[in-house]
Design goal:
single chain; alpha/beta; Rossmann fold; eight-stranded mixed sheet; 8 strands; binds NADP nicotinamide-adenine-dinucleotide phosphate
């Protein structure tokens, strides 16, 4: 198998590239010579971002809360490109009140966990055929306080702390997913890693009303820039240093031990089985 020589000339697909960390990462990756595909949900925003890039980039549209959109996106990507070398699951959100997706799944769970799970799963053969290849998922230090509520994944029994608890659960799910995926990818030349970008001044949480926007704006005085928040993501995509590493959680380019709950392998396998069930209904719809 070829050695990893960086992202220049490689096909890199990134979700959530219309704002914040994903936008900063996309700009940097395009500058570095990646053949970039940016995924957005708004045609106007995605086009606007694409046109402002320093190099030509491809675009795809998908509302990642919708499983049929995610499946359609995966099939479109697999058909369009002979190889995909880096898949970056970066899009994410938090919802202050409990809402359901078109598939009847709690919305934060649908966007932050099930979308990366489904997109990566459907693209797995393509990534293996493109090896060496990488899957990178944006997690968060918000996972440290979380446990996966296996008896209430839909948040019906409670949705406290204005969505912050649910958000932490989904970011814990990102790490458990990454570790279970890495085990399945062992020996294939495809790695799976995740990272925490730090507290970054982005559009995050601006969808939850004026009070939350005001609080976030004050918080941004102490936050990192999106470029700094994107640094570990770009490094994970590009660097030959991480070629042999899979299933790891990074902060500021360093591998860090995630919480005990994130290192619970039986929870990771249980989550994998449940996630398969949660996306199975939409499989027949495409
Ligand atoms: N900011 C932080 O301090 C921080 C800390 C730790 C982890 N993170 C993680 O970093 C990632 C990026 O967040 P950010 O801080 O850069 O926030 P952001 O500026 O709000 O960017 C979020 C991105 O995700 C996209 N997105 C959200 N829901 C989507 C959906 N249903 N379908 C398709 N795309 C969707 C947004 O698209 P639109 O432009 O269409 O809204 C946007 O491009 C997230 O996974 C977040 O959990 C952020």
């Amino acid at each position: 198998m070829q050695q990893w020589s960086g992202v220049a000339g490689k096909r890199v697909v990134i979700t959530g590239a219309t704002s914040g960390i994903g936008l900063a990462a996309a700009r940097r990756l395009a500058q570095m010579g990646a053949q970039l595909t940016i995924v957005g949900r708004s045609s106007a925003r995605t086009q606007h971002v694409a046109e402002a890039m320093s190099a030509p980039v491809d675009t795809c549209l998908a509302d990642l809360s919708s499983q049929s959109d995610v499946r359609h996106l995966a099939h479109q990507l697999a058909e369009r490109y002979p190889a995909i070398h880096v898949l970056i699951n970066n899009a994410g959100a938090m919802y202050a009140s409990r809402q359901l997706s078109a598939d009847g799944v709690e919305l934060t769970w649908a966007v932050n966990h099930l979308a990366p799970f489904l997109l990566s799963s459907v693209l797995l053969d393509k990534l293996k055929d493109s090896a060496p290849a990488r899957i990178i998922t944006t997690s968060s230090a918000a996972h440290y306080r979380a446990q996966i509520p296996f008896d209430d994944l839909s948040g019906e029994q409670g949705y406290p702390m204005m969505g912050f608890r649910r958000y932490g659960e989904t970011k814990l799910a990102n790490i458990l997913f990454t570790r279970a995926l890495a085990r399945r990818l062992s020996g294939t030349g495809v790695t799976a890693n995740c990272f925490h970008p730090g507290f970054v001044g982005t559009g995050f949480n601006h969808n939850n009303g004026w009070l939350m926007r005001a609080i976030m704006s004050v918080g941004h005085m102490f936050a990192r820039s999106p470029e700094r928040g994107a640094d570990t993501l770009v490094w994970l995509a590009d660097s030959p240093e991480v070629s042999g590493i899979s299933g790891a959680y990074f902060v500021d380019r360093r591998e860090v031990r995630p919480s005990p709950a994130a290192r619970d392998e039986s929870a990771a396998e249980r989550l994998w089985r449940i996630s398969e069930e949660q996306v199975s209904a939409s499989a027949t719809a495409v």
